């Protein structure tokens, strides 16, 4: 399946990377909000035939438009799309012609291509309840043996992932703005991804495949469906669990986990005051009778909060007990000898 994507490229980079041009030249997608962590019901850029929006356009001409992730069927009667009772973020390729929600828009030629940097998938690992997230994308020449300092530069010439989808147009029963929404078609995973998850998006590899999928005027449905199959032209890397929460939207969501720089936690204001107090208020004199402990005995996590010189030993209850027992022994009367018979 595909339940989380990333599309954070700037508008101009995204349009240029898709080789998208219309009659007026290069155009940028409107209402596009870049994000490292896109979840369902978010608005994402998709490619579609311009003929869907302009009757006199050529079906082979493409346009980028923002759409809501999670297809809302045109026949849906409720006034709130969130009340849709079934999940439509993905559409299985083997049942696409059986489900009414997908069969109807597909028959109308409402095919689209979902654009993304890549998508996320989680692998369930034995022995742990914490799944490992992976970022999956087209192979990029700039990502080979890249260092942490150069990781941000790989996005300058990034090749976006192009996933096959279906869209529909829903009009609120009481009137209002039309809502364009889409679903991502899924297929069985390729061999390289099968250990991570058994399903993957139907990826259209290359401009020709993208054009044929979108050109509903010249390419009939049955012919276009032949493009829906797994691809081995894919790569991936493990990322930080920070991506598990869809509210986290930072570059760390995409950074390879071995390149993530772990930041040392900063001491709070109260901790800083405590360290200052320890540095100024701790005793200066050492108890000569108390043997010094080896520095290695001090736990590393606490050494930064303790004085290097050991504190005087406290008089514990054990010393008092020994002296009391000694005193009792000295004051005790001599034991009576047993009488001989």
Automatic annotation (TrEMBL):
UniProt keyword annotations, A-Z: Covalent protein-DNA linkage, DNA damage, DNA-binding, Hydrolase, Lyase, Protease
Biological processes annotated in GO: protein-DNA covalent cross-linking repair; proteolysis
UniProt GO MF annotations: lyase activity; peptidase activity; single-stranded DNA binding
Chain intervals with Polar residues compositional bias: 298-307
EC numbers, comma separated: 3.4.-.-
Source superkingdom: Eukaryota
Extent of Basic and acidic residues compositional bias: 283-297, 325-334
Region (Disordered): 264-341
Main EC class the enzyme belongs to: hydrolase
Family: Belongs to the SOS response-associated peptidase family.
Protein purpose: Sensor of abasic sites in single-stranded DNA (ssDNA) required to preserve genome integrity by promoting error-free repair of abasic sites. Acts as an enzyme that recognizes and binds abasic sites in ssDNA at replication forks and chemically modifies the lesion by forming a covalent cross-link with DNA: forms a stable thiazolidine linkage between a ring-opened abasic site and the alpha-amino and sulfhydryl substituents of its N-terminal catalytic cysteine residue. The HMCES DNA-protein cross-link is then either reversed or degraded.
The protein's name: Abasic site processing protein HMCES
Biological source species: Cavia porcellus
